[in-house]
Amino acid sequence: MTAALTRADSRPHPPAEPQDGTCPDTARDGILQRQARRESSARTYARSLPIVPVRAKGMTVEGADGRRYLDCLSGAGTLALGHNHPVVLEAIRAVLDAEAPLHVLDLATPVKDRFVDALFETLPPEFARDARIQFCGPAGTDGVEAALKLVRTATGRRGVLAFTGAYHGMTAGALAVSGDTAIREAIGPGADEVTRLPYPYAYRCPFGVGGPEGAALAVRYAETLLDDPAGGVAAPAAMIVEAVQGEGGVIPAPDTWLREMRRITDERGIPLILDEVQTGLGRTGAFWAVEHSGVVPDVMVISKAVGGSLPLAVIVYRGDLDRWWPGAHAGTFRGNQLAMAAGTATIAHIRANRLDTRAAELGDRLTTGLRALMAGRPEIGDVRGRGLMIGVEIVDPDAAPGVDGARPAAPELAAAVRAAALDRGLIVELGGRHGAVVRLLPPLTMTDSQAAAVLDRLADAIPAATAAVRKASTRRGRTA
């Protein structure tokens, strides 16, 4: 690691400028141009974040042009310990130095055995006691597919209960239970078996009331629909839910509402699937997001951070659901030994250093600072989240609030905030219904000075973005 990059971790607000005095954009631009020419139109992050990372340590990323950035994307939540954490690198090197097999399908290995032990030690004891684990393909969406197949096999039913605003992955089954109709249109059979229920969203409450009353109405709606013989609900094999919707706009489920979903599913014999792909391993201030409510699910989908930055996905589920036959669900890359070793090291480091507690403390500090900023910035409609999973909803500062008190979402302004933040050395991404929620997913190892720098850079970026959007709007008006 270069000395310049190491220093960047300790500086509260380093400029996003070339550090070596050279002409910075030549190499970067060439790589980006070749990517645009050769890669598919489906690429996303490369369009909104035109950087070419070449080195990274902790929360700091250095681009090919010499600029340095604080990374609040963390591989969409994959990098719980940040980039190139020493315990992860050591675990990977140990497997390589031992000349252990790297690819073993579903064969038993010491590396896998240690990983399963470490993972099960983190689960609620009553869940872990009789749990089974299935190693899936390497992505969270593969885990969702496995979970859906599991419950349909176990129950003999086809229907699934899912929620508005949900995101569970990009394969056909996972998309069927996600909430974005634009990307669901081409998935083929299966979507008609999904019943979509309202997810409590206090800022833009589907019932127009928000708060505990809105959550209570969502519970009543779900229960009434399920008990209506003419409700049109396919017999549910499961309910799948995120304790905090990530891509949906960083919307935490109220604990009381999640407990009610557990009651509703229990009373009707419906397995409850918790999608912990983005929320797991301390991200929300508890090791698992479901711990905040005390709910014990029937199935957990786990990926992203569990591989210690490498591809790995599993489902853990109640033993009585284990009615698969050999080969009923498989995947060539489900035996990734390096990911299991890295995951074991990550789990151990988070637990030993209580990084879940640290995430809760830093998350409170960041949300408090962002809410203080909101008081003077009408572009910020809402600040919400749990632990180090934070959303800042960007709204039209010049529009009147609606009947629910919320201003209209401002996706163009949110995109401008993202760009202005990048100019200031801060990597953030967008999510939410209209792509208007700035999402913060920093590593759990973020320092106090880095947290302060994130607040400073967002505080600079938001008014700069507003001025740029207004200037562009004025220019368009003159040329119309």
TrEMBL record:
Gene3D superfamilies: Aspartate Aminotransferase, domain 1, Type I PLP-dependent aspartate aminotransferase-like (Major domain). SUPFAM superfamilies: PLP-dependent transferases. Pathway: Amine and polyamine biosynthesis; ectoine biosynthesis; L-ectoine from L-aspartate 4-semialdehyde: step 1/3. Its EC number is 2.6.1.76. Residues 1-27 are annotated as: Disordered. InterPro entries: Aminotrans_3 (IPR005814), Aminotrans_3_PPA_site (IPR049704), Dat (IPR004637), PyrdxlP-dep_Trfase (IPR015424), PyrdxlP-dep_Trfase_major (IPR015421), PyrdxlP-dep_Trfase_small (IPR015422). Pfam families: Aminotran_3 (PF00202). Its cofactor is pyridoxal 5'-phosphate. Belongs to the class-III pyridoxal-phosphate-dependent aminotransferase family. NCBIfam families: dat (TIGR00709), PRK06938.1 (NF005393). PANTHER family: DIAMINOBUTYRATE--2-OXOGLUTARATE AMINOTRANSFERASE. This is Diaminobutyrate--2-oxoglutarate transaminase. It comes from Yinghuangia aomiensis.
